[in-house]
Specification:
single chain, mainly alpha, flat
């Protein structure tokens, strides 16, 4: 009987350890841009309740993001073409900047 109780206790401990390991990757997973935006909108409307909160989040979520400035776009294109050299880099950045 004592062996059965010990075996059950070990099984429960092992099951708990496996469950904790299975939950860990989900917790460390990065948020998608949509999830990040939802969190930002929820924070911006903190303190509101009911329809005021829903309407505030809805307006925030449907708002269009501001277009990139020329400098921001250049930085993004340079990052996208990182590792290229010479003419490959120049043509890649040029294509990125023109949007093709």
């Amino acid at each position: 009987m004592k062996q059965l109780i010990t075996a059950l206790a070990l099984a429960l401990c092992a099951a708990g350890a496996f469950a904790a390991d299975a939950a860990a990757p989900a917790a460390s997973k990065a948020l998608t841009p949509q999830q990040q935006k939802m969190g930002d909108c929820a924070s911006a409307n903190k303190g509101k309740t009911g329809d005021d909160y829903k309407n505030g989040v809805k307006a925030c979520m449907s708002a269009k993001s501001e277009p990139l400035t020329q400098q921001q776009k250049m930085g993004a294109c340079a990052k996208a073409n990182k590792g290229k050299k010479g003419d490959d880099y120049k043509s890649g950045v040029k294509a990125c900047m023109t949007g093709s």
